[in-house]
Structures are given as C-alpha cells and as structure tokens.
Amino acid sequence: MESARVLEELLILRSQQGDRKSFELLVKRWHPRLVRHALFIVKDREVAQDIAQESWQSAIRGLPGLKDTGRFSSWIYRIAHNKSIDWIRKNKKEHEIMDNLELDIQKSAEDEPVITGELSAAERVKVTLNTLPDHQKLILTLFYLEEQSLKEIARILSLPEGTVKSRLFYAREQLKKKYKEVNHEKI
Q: CA angle, corner 136, sides to 133 and 142, nearest 5?
C-alpha cells in the first residue's frame, strides 16, 4: 500500500510539472473512483461520467496549486463531490432518485427488501447498504470501499472530523440493524 502512495505522489509531482504521461496515468488510476463516487450521488451513469470529466478539467487547473500531494485523494474527491452536489441542485426538479440495485430483491408486504436466491455475503451487504439513507451509504462507501481516512472524509464532506466519526458509528449501527432485518439473521 505504501508503494502505491509513493507512486501516486510521484505522478502528482510530475503532473504538476507538466508531464502529460504522468497526468494520464493519474487519470487512469482515479477516473473509475470519481465516476463511482459521482454515480453514488447523482444516480445516473452518464451524468456521473460527465461529472468525472468536469472534475478532471478542474483538477488540471488546480493541480499546480496543490501543495500537499498526500491530500490528493481528498482533494480530487472533494472536486467530484462538489460537482455532483452542484448538478443535483441545478437539476433538482428533474432529478429523481433511482434504485440501481442490480441484485434480485423484491419488496415484502412491509415494504422492506427481502433477499431472494443464493447471494454471497458481500452481495448481501451490498443489498443491505442500499437500504440505508444516502448520507449513511456515502460515509460507509468512502470509509470502507474507497478506503478514505476519517480526516480525508472530513475534508471531502467539509465536516468536522468528530462529526464524521459519529456519523460513521451510527451508519455502522444502522447497517448492522438493517442487515439483520433484510437477511433475517441474528448478528
């Protein structure tokens, strides 16, 4: 993991000096993450692709001013996050929250998801995660799937670190509770 960080910082430094190949490698490493982050917020793959592209355009302009290369991940996520929120605000009336679960779930009489068929533990967690409110899904995704630290998440979401820690705790508790409900299991 440390070698990946060193490589990334080297790519950032070279990109800041105008090395096009280094910037292309940086984009190749980060673009899927930015698309995934934007998709999580806007719920539309095409829009998420556009937001990621706009994020890179902003990154090109702002990269020379980035003083601490160790903060690149929270910096680039913050750009994509802000662009996603801006898009939602701009398209608020047209924006409908879409359920993009690709797994086979059905609604029970209580309107709670029930998992059908044989799913792996990871798929069960994904289904359960998608039952949580967006703010809880976001913080869990950033921490566990995107492997961002509490400090980095605080920068991305413009929140105090203590607030992030608290929200992460409550999101974990809610995930455990929902997992038990959705999977009819005891934890």
A: 135
